[in-house]
Every structure is written in structure tokens, then in C-alpha cells.
Specification:
Blueprint (H helix, E strand, L loop, with lengths): L2 E4 L6 E2 L9 E8 L2 E8 L7 E7 L7 E10 L8 E8 L4 H6 L2 E4 L9 E4 L6 E10 L6 E8 L3 E4 L15 H23 L16 H38 L6
Length: 252
């Protein structure tokens, strides 16, 4: 049976030596399990954030799992980077890095042992157990990476603590999220009044922001053409008036 290394919030810190773009803080939030201390790292932009710790004194040639809980860590554009690296500490740092374990936890590509609907916000609560074997080593480095998404990490509760929460896989959450975004898009288009001149459909929604903008540009161009026609008519009228005055006649 594997030995368990639980996520210890106070032993993790931002990896300032490897990344100059770290975004994150350690703090408390109130969740369905009461007041919990957590690390929140990453943002929705390009900042690459690493949270890390060194675990020493492990037993050699032993199976371990790194256990933690997380919320968020996903992106509406499916471009988040969310992963965990585990590697031994050795004199040959490059070789140690090459021998690392890498777990892709974004979009639950590595399956969590628990995946539930978080009660406090529109996200999932997932518990991961990442296995690794120590081989002949006793000291290991654990690095948590986040980009294009905000991620929150907690010490995981016992499995029984999540029993009353609703099961929610990533695929189910993504389907629900897509429906929510579609409803928001349609409502936003209707509030902005776009679509009134599009194939005669007064409230027709657009398939993308780019299409909505293109339609707005077309409408604007049509209004400019109308203004140009009115200006041309006014110019012709003024020319007629000028000619009539110069000839001593009476303008029509």
C-alpha cells in the first residue's frame, strides 16, 4: 500500500527562482467544510506560476502518493495549463528533471479520485492522488504549475467528508458551462440590439464575438452610405441654387 504525502500549505511557496511571473497568495476562504487555508495561484493571462516544496526523508524504493484537493483550474477557452511535476533531488539536476513524473491535471486528463460539484461557486472540487516511486532517493521536489487559469489548492479531507456532495465530472461540468456561456452570449447580443438587420431576424444571436463585430461594422458602413447619399443630394441642391443666383434666375 502506498504511503501518503498530503498537501501541506505552509510548506509550499512560490518558486521565485524558476519563474519571474508568479501570481498567487496564501489565505483563508470559507467553503462547505468551514474555514480552509488555501493557495490560490495563476491568472487568466500569460503569467506562468509555480508553487513548490521539497519533501525530505522519504523511504527509498517505496511507493508514495501526493494527495491534495483543488477547485477552479479550468478555462472557458480550454487553454489552461495545469500540471504537477515530481522529481528526486540529485547532483545531476538535469537528469533528475528528465526522470520526473508529470501529471496533467487540467481538464481532469489525469483522473481524480473524487470529483464533486463545489457548493460555494460554479466549479468542481477534485481530489487527486498522484503516485510515484522513490527508487534509490529520499528527497523529492513537488512543483505545481498554473497558466491561463486561477487554481486553488487545499489539503484534502477524508473521502467520507465528500460523500454528501453531488458527483460532477469534468465532462459534465464542461457541458453545463457551455450551456451557461451560450445563454449569456444570446442575452448579451439581445441587450446590445445586434441582429436587427441580419436576415430579418430581430433577436438572432451570433455564433462568435467576431461575427457580432463584423455585423456591427456592416451596419455602420450602410449608415455611412446613407449619409453620403444625403450629402450628395444636398450638394446638388446647393450647386443648383448657386447657378440660379449667378444667372439671375429664380431657384426651383
Amino acid at each position: 500500500m502506498s504511503k501518503v504525502i498530503n498537501f501541506d500549505i505552509r510548506k509550499f511557496d512560490l518558486d521565485v527562482h524558476s519563474s519571474q511571473t508568479n501570481i498567487g497568495y496564501r489565505g483563508f476562504i470559507t467553503s462547505s467544510h468551514g474555514n480552509e487555508e488555501m493557495w490560490e495561484i495563476g491568472d487568466w493571462g500569460w503569467n506562468w506560476t509555480q508553487l513548490c516544496t521539497t519533501v525530505t526523508g522519504l523511504e527509498p524504493d517505496t511507493d508514495y502518493v501526493f494527495r491534495f484537493a483543488m477547485t477552479l483550474g479550468h478555462n472557458d477557452d480550454n487553454r489552461e495549463v495545469s500540471m504537477v511535476h515530481i522529481h528526486y533531488c540529485g547532483e545531476d539536476e538535469q537528469q533528475a528533471w528528465n526522470d520526473r513524473y508529470t501529471y496533467c491535471i487540467g481538464m481532469s486528463r489525469f483522473k481524480p479520485v473524487i470529483s464533486k460539484k463545489a457548493l460555494e461557486e460554479d466549479t468542481m472540487l477534485r481530489v487527486f492522488e498522484l503516485p510515484f516511486h522513490t527508487g534509490g532517493h529520499t528527497d523529492f521536489r513537488i512543483i505545481i504549475v498554473s497558466q491561463h487559469a486561477v487554481s486553488r489548492f487545499f489539503k484534502a479531507q477524508n473521502n467520507e467528508a465528500y460523500a454528501d456532495m453531488e458527483d460532477l465530472s469534468y465532462a459534465q461540468w464542461r457541458e453545463q458551462r457551455t450551456e451557461t456561456l451560450e445563454a449569456q452570449r444570446i442575452k448579451r447580443n439581445q441587450m446590445l440590439g445586434f441582429g436587427s438587420g441580419r436576415n430579418g431576424g430581430g433577436n438572432e444571436a451570433y455564433d462568435s464575438s467576431e461575427e457580432m463585430i463584423e455585423s456591427a461594422i456592416e451596419d455602420f458602413r450602410a449608415e455611412i452610405d446613407d449619409f453620403r447619399a444625403e450629402i450628395d443630394d444636398l450638394r446638388d441642391a446647393l450647386i443648383g441654387l448657386k447657378n440660379a443666383l449667378q444667372s439671375g434666375g429664380t431657384p426651383d
